[in-house]
Amino acid sequence: MATQEISTLQTIASRLRVHSLRSTSEAGSGHPTSCLSAAELVSAVFFHAMRFDPADPANPNNDRFVLSKGHAAPVLYAALAEAGVWPTESLLSLRKITSNLEGHPTPRIPWVGAATGSLGQGLSVGVGMALNGKCLDQSDYRVYVLLGDGEIAEGGVWEAAALASYYQLDNLVAIIDVNGLGQSQRTMYDHDIEVYAKRFAAFGWEACTVDGHNLEAILTALDAAQAVKGRPALIVARTLKGKGVSFLEDREGWHGKPLKKGEELESALREVSSNGDDGPFLVARPAASTAAADTASSAFPEPTYQLGDKVATRSAYGTALAKLGGVDPRVVALDGDTKNSTFAEAFLKAHKDRYFECFIAEQNMVGAAVGLAACGKVPFVSTFAAFLTRAFDHIRMAAISGVSIKYVGSHCGVSIGEDGPSQMGLEDLAMMRAIPNSTVFYPSDAVAAERLTALAATLKGATYIRTSRPATPVLYLNTEAFPVGGSKTLRASGSDRLTIVAAGVTLHEALQAYEMLKAAGVVVRVIDAYSVKPIDAQGLLHAAAQTNNTVVVVEDHYYDGGLGDAVLNAVAAHGVRVHKIAVTEVPRSGKPEELLDAYGISARRIVERVKTLTA
Amino acid sequence: MATQEISTLQTIASRLRVHSLRSTSEAGSGHPTSCLSAAELVSAVFFHAMRFDPADPANPNNDRFVLSKGHAAPVLYAALAEAGVWPTESLLSLRKITSNLEGHPTPRIPWVGAATGSLGQGLSVGVGMALNGKCLDQSDYRVYVLLGDGEIAEGGVWEAAALASYYQLDNLVAIIDVNGLGQSQRTMYDHDIEVYAKRFAAFGWEACTVDGHNLEAILTALDAAQAVKGRPALIVARTLKGKGVSFLEDREGWHGKPLKKGEELESALREVSSNGDDGPFLVARPAASTAAADTASSAFPEPTYQLGDKVATRSAYGTALAKLGGVDPRVVALDGDTKNSTFAEAFLKAHKDRYFECFIAEQNMVGAAVGLAACGKVPFVSTFAAFLTRAFDHIRMAAISGVSIKYVGSHCGVSIGEDGPSQMGLEDLAMMRAIPNSTVFYPSDAVAAERLTALAATLKGATYIRTSRPATPVLYLNTEAFPVGGSKTLRASGSDRLTIVAAGVTLHEALQAYEMLKAAGVVVRVIDAYSVKPIDAQGLLHAAAQTNNTVVVVEDHYYDGGLGDAVLNAVAAHGVRVHKIAVTEVPRSGKPEELLDAYGISARRIVERVKTLTA
């Protein structure tokens, strides 16, 4: 396989510098000095180490590249131009609203599997891609991740580092561009490259240090990295921010600053330009793509519950996930040492090879899921709902990546009881509803939990399934369907005074409240809003119109951002009066039933509220 | 200073085991085996190493203790009982709704500075407390943090580890209880204590390993830790989960399981009980408390802007923070390598000793702020609004702690322009509104930004200030007051067709829209909703009533959870029609004005929308 000579790689590095300077100056914004420090590294990775087909970004045998230091996007775009992916002229469209070459890389570019730009996340994405290659596809592609040094402070990097060595990901090569300068000051360790090497070595990596502008040394390191077995490899490269331009090199105050077009830019270009060949330049190729993409192979086996069985929705989730794994080979599961609580363990038992224990490290778990999704897998990621907040930035970035991930949060609400507020998911609906175009499900029984889990596998983007800790009665027949954006009317009559909307644990409280109210001569409608987003606006409006335009929403969630706001948005414009009942303060330990009552969402408290509204 | 003999410490350890078993059995829930592994460690820390006054939890000279492995709460409560803080009988109230002894520690207990229970956060809290002692109060108290081994996988721990050694926190002692068992399986490293020691040593700590059930070794290690200078100290203790009870020791499947009252519990108690003395036991005392608590010393100096000056609210924030630091000695600032963008650097320049650079590690930044707040400081924590999502779990736990922290997120919305979506805060209002009893401010000009920053310093709980990147005209006189829950009506007449509610960048767009609409014969009211939470419900209702009960809310934020929902909640019940304009998809790079227009929130697009509503 042909690779480039050092002199050619140096020419390429110069060209990458020229492109980075020109494109950011043209855009009037961007991070050229962060690109300049990485030029030799990127040249060597793309034109010596990696095997990929510039004409076929979807070839599953391509080596992967993740630019964790996403603000260096221009140098990535430049490398792809020099590989012939697009003309170098197009680099001048950087950051324009009409261009796919955004300020930080997004998958508008097929070469970018996952969006980066929020630092410290790229290594997790790389871990996911490496897990896919080594453990799932048994492919020999490699994953290269280029990080900055400032972002090594991010805990997510260390979560990824630990898991990468635990899973012996010797198809993963990380490179740190240590230019010593962060955004607002020098980094903690400046140019002390040994610190990084020592730390990653302590985390089980094979680590070496190089002069990041010495191509010979870089190539030696990359070749050595490819030969490492049983552990991931790290190359710590000492570089200079702004390398190649005398008035930029290692100077503070130039982060995120483009050069002004005119003499400032021209003088810099004079310094970095080379007399070498023009591109495009050849890259090493992978094997041709042969495998067809997996798809689901058969229908999801129906649930098998009896009405009235007491089953926790978290348990039914586990059952469903295991069944799903049996009919869809793309489904994989990740959990953060809570699998016996979330019931992801059912998937582990049934499909050991597709389960990834991520330990107590939720950020990396989500980042790895992004990497797996970028490789065509269908990841279900579970932990306690409360702990999904640990990964909100990764969930946010996953949405920017446009990948499809199913998040499953168990132990929602005060209904978990004595463990207390640190373990209670009370803001998870708010978090997941905020993600644009997300889907949010909140099943109230085992049948719904199974059906919605199966449905989630087919949906695009972010899907969230909220599960509960306590066992609750099965309400639906096994054949019941639960479409996206639907709801279920569980109690209705011609004389309903108002409609109660609920889901999960409070749906069961509402059904009890129904009986208590009925006994007191007050008949109400009860709706199970299992699809929190999109919500069944039509259904709710219809019910409201028949029930005095009065709706009571009760949820085991904080007051802002949850089911109540979903309902409010759906019906308020039509003159429907919405009364929200939710948890309005930080709760505390206690028995589940005591807490439901103390925080206003028990059957008794619902009855109280309805009575005041129907007095 | 008197400390206890080893035999006494062993007796205490036995008593801690008895209490942990009894209290969790009584509660019917809890994590006794996690307590049993830590008994010698806790005995040694409380009754040999720490100096504190059991009668005076507020003594600022007390050593601090943070139980990072918060699920071991019963052993902490037991230690406090054995120190005489409360009677041992009260331990049986564990997890009851009437008791302060919650499932995981919360500051209902004055000895608990910060709530724990979401793993991997305690070391950050300890870092904050240590920074306070070493850098601010120049006190010689020490901070002890007890961690579990499973939580070492959390990235937040490594953020804390790095910053602790960077700041040479030799008043910080961390102890890891390595019992090898996580929640759902054995940890990544089981009993390989050298791995932990090696990693922390690589992170600059003085690390040693001990048998965690050998008190002599533990005492030696604790004494050595106290003598370490210039770096934090770590003791890695090899322990057995369930130690002391033969049928529990090192057994899988016992995490989070109490023993059944009756023979199961009794047989365990027989094994762990000792014949030693009863408590309470003496602890070493600190110096008596002498210092009076700091308070703000003088009035905040007024802003000094001219109407029409173009100033970014992020810049005004920096100015205000520096002034605030001059009148309130408790104010401290933390930032995550964005100080030149958030303008926290103004505080650094003015009050170097009270500024803490936290580098690119937002989780630890928030956790450290919690530690500082627990020590009576008034922390302002800043980064890009988008990156505050990185710390959502820490923000969540800070709310459970009930501490007062001011979060400041800059670079909100698509208005930041070409950097693109990874840098845009678009869900930050949703996140911060979900926190119970939070305050959320969104200043539209420099005067408001300064006033609200000064006001924020006086507020309890979580306060969030959202700042914008672009420079915008000063709208208010320097003397204008901005009360919590207020709003400002900027344009009003007797014939307003509807009310536009906005804040920040879109408030300026709305003012431009006002002019364009007026020229077209459509007069509207414009309200600056600078207090997003609590929102000025009365003011909005009043305006709506005068303007055809029609309100248009426009925000540079995603559609769910932001200003629009705040308005909806305030007015919908009263028949006001609310039309929300917000960003409804993941945005992209482009010029700020192009993006505002593309995503529907520019002046032009507001005009378009208003015209359809008033046609």
Characterization of the model:
Chain A has 615 residues and is of the alpha/beta class. In chain A, 38% of the residues lie in helices and 15% in strands. Chain A has 22 helices and 19 strands. In chain A, strands 8-7-9-10-12-11-17 form a 7-stranded mixed beta sheet, sandwiched between helices. Chain A has a 5-stranded parallel beta sheet with strand order 1-2-3-5-4, with helices on both faces. Chain A is elongated. At the A-B interface, α6, α7, α11, α13 and α15 of A face α6, α7, α11, α13 and α15 of B.
Number of strands of chain A: 19
Cα-atom Rg of chain A, whole angstroms? 27 Å
Give the helix tally of chain A.
22
Q: Which whole number gives the mean pLDDT of chain A? A: 96
Oligomer: homodimer
Main sheet of chain A: which strands, in order across? Answer: 8-7-9-10-12-11-17
Percent of residues of chain A in beta strands?
A: 15-25%
Shape of chain A: elongated
SSE class of chain A: alpha/beta
- Greatest interface (CB-CB under 8 A), with counts per chain: A-B, 109 and 110 residues
Poorly predicted tracts of residues of chain A: none
Helix content of chain A: 25-40%
The major pleated sheet of chain A works out as: 7 strands, mixed
> Termini of chain A, distance in Å?
83 Å
Briefly summarize what is shown.
Chain A is an alpha/beta fold and about 625 residues long. Helix content of chain A is about 40%, strand content about 15%.
